[in-house]
Structure prediction request, 408 residues.
Amino acid sequence: MTSGSSKDEGGGVAPQNKGSWSSFLKSIASFNGDLSSMTAPPFILGTLSLTEFSAYWTQHPSVFVAPAAEKDPAKRALLVLKWFLSTLKPSYSTRNDKYGSEKKPLNPFLGELFLGKWEDEAGTTELVSEQVSHHPPVTAYCIQNPKHGIKLEGYNGQKASFSRTIHIKQIGHALLTLTPPDNPSAPAETYLITLPNIHIEGLIYGKPFVELNGCTYISSSTGYTGKIDYSGKGWVSGKKNSFTATLYPTGKEKDVLYSVDGQWPESFTIRQGSGKHGTVIDTYNSRNAPITPLIVPALEQQDPWEANKAWGKVITAITKGDMDTTNIEKSKIENAQREYRRREQSEGREWERRFFTRSDKAEDWWEVLAKGIGERIEAEKTGGVWRFDKAKAETARRPFHEGMSPTG
Prediction:
């Protein structure tokens, strides 16, 4: 993307909603606290729930599994970095590839599920995503490809605030584990992945789009660290969605083995050595990379707690532009969830998660990987530390909550 005024970006808010949009901006500007607790006006709602966003980690399964076939540990770490960078466009760029038309996703309800799989030359890659907490809101996920012995799991919550624009701090992390191809009996390698902070640009013009800022890390148990620095378009110069990244031996940031630069929704270049003077060894085009479609069960086969079925009437109303019905159907789910929580509290019990288990603190090995990059677990902000529970998953079957419905 070349630089340009955000006034020219995307389609903006429909004329009939301009007044409501201005009122919404005033309300968030004067709001104290976490913006995620605010109710958004129906006309800015998208048709995707946040539980579905977990699928953006693996739109390119062949890139996801590639590290599992690389014998050299440094190159393996580089392939993990390349895969992570390939996930940025689907995860954070506008879902319809049109700048200035970003929509607010649906806030998942506690117990919401999103299940699917990808099938291509990489084999079968399976996805489980579950809303494990509502206050604070936290989504946990697990993506695995048994054929290649690779698994990604993680969880994240978001804390939103307003200061000239909307700032979203992502809380949580992802863990990629794989078995080295040259030693199947060796312990699995682990890569701790931190999450970028987000801010929303173009709000004043009613044409919002996502920008990333700050830096994130990939810390590996094999002794390599990847660092990604994000930068957006400045007032005078610069390109949207730009980044630079380096891979180096842990603790030796100046000894750069590989470097990467580009724009994450567009393309990036991988070099051996540091910066622009390094030797180009690979390129990746984010726009042209083939996407493997996610396979999800047909609606009639889905459980009432699966996202597409649970939000079906809301999605239909949003698609038709029927904001009154959107608000009515959305309120049915929200009111039923409040009643479930009241009932649980009065009975002294807790909602049962189907695929994940909570712990109060991170594992010792997690602390080792996190120490070198200054990462903290912040369990108090995510309702605990959430891990995929293999035993639960093996017994989980539809109906997931027999006799219960998200609408009560």
Q: What stands out?
A: DSSP finds nine helices and 17 strands in the chain. The first helix runs from residue 18 to 29. Residues 142 and 160 are 25 Å apart (CA to CA). Residues 1-11 have pLDDT under 50 and may be disordered.
